[in-house]
């Protein structure tokens, strides 16, 4: 079991890296192959349809949790009741989503009548049709994956994701060579989701001994899971609003071409998020252990300094590297006409960076069952973001949406939540930030500035990116090791280097 879990963790990191690489390759190819209009059309429709994701209600998470509990008790009947109940609930949710999506389908023409032609609206409806099919299949697959993870089959879901990432990229590129239309993306996603669903269902039946029967439905499972379900619902609402609201409003009030530019910036932002999640979650067990010990405010803050510094180092290297050579990166992969996406991405990422440095603190909320306060704060901030975006897009264009998101993110996640952390969890937030930033940010700023200057010397964006990136990596590695890393961190680096040499 331990080896299976370890393999699953390794595969999850491989998935993250490959998703980033293939995602950059595919998005840059599609913008050039099918054009801003088609790519923007796809992004606009999917952003609109993504709001239906909030109705998923965490069925996969709840299934995994309950199956794990039953497995620990060796309760096979309880496992069968769980998957039978959650499977029926998932099907009911799928039917509800299907009914709502019909209304959404009919409203597309009214929503985008001022920004799309009749032909584009027709294509948008076809994309929406395929996307909804993909969404329904994904819901069913998530519940099955929750069951597989609950019975300690950690690798299958990651392998399935790997296959989907690779096949999606190859298939879309192969078809769009001959048929340059955004419908291809939606159709391929639907087909692959159908294949993955069939494979997952077969795996759970044959390899995980899954048994589903209507007679095993147990409403007590629903009642017991309701608090978690509501928390996940609120979290999903916030996440989808933050991920999609800008594109929906831009598509409705500007043009689909504007959505294409914004989508590039948001994709860079999503890469930053995915990379930052790993070091945050890695420290969760240690934080939980420290919470159970009687530590005063000062000593408990001390236990958070090291993981916070690590997160700052990892995120800072990526962020300031993008500041230094991100302009050339955008030009190389997406074209010079998308260069403003570099500025948009930076405006979105900087407040995220400031909030991610206290990512370990966020985990404490889950451990201490104080998640609701954070969710309510973020929900309120999200409503303000929607209002400001709606007003500012009309006045300032795409940059209005970007600034609205950045400001509300900074106010909510950096200012309000840090004040809450200081009061509710009794953490010395200012000392935490000082230890994380004082000996790292100046180095990052200097290295990013030098990298930017070097990259601008070259007439070719590719050469500028490579030269500036190379200078940045060498400088930041040397200066951090010389002036920033403490003895513990230097020892970790030395141990890693020794292991690499032996291998």
Strand content: under 5%
What's the count of strands? 0
Helix % is over 70%
What spatial form do the alpha-carbon principal axes imply? globular
Distance N terminus to C terminus? Answer: 26 Å
Regarding quaternary structure, what we see is: single chain
Task: Give the averaged pLDDT, no decimals.
Answer: 82
Largest sheet: none
Structural class: mainly alpha
Low-confidence stretches: none
Tell me the radius of gyration: 24 Å
What string, H for helix and E for strand, traces the elements in order? HHHHHHHHHHHHHHHHHH
Number of domains: 2
Number of helical stretches of at least 4 residues: 18
What does this structure look like?
- The chain has 18 helices and no strands.
- The protein has two domains: 1-28 and 54-244, no CATH class; 255-503, no CATH class.
- The chain is globular, with a radius of gyration of 24 Å.
- The relative contact order is 0.09.
- It has 503 residues and is mainly alpha-helical.
- Helix 7 (219-253) packs across helix 8.
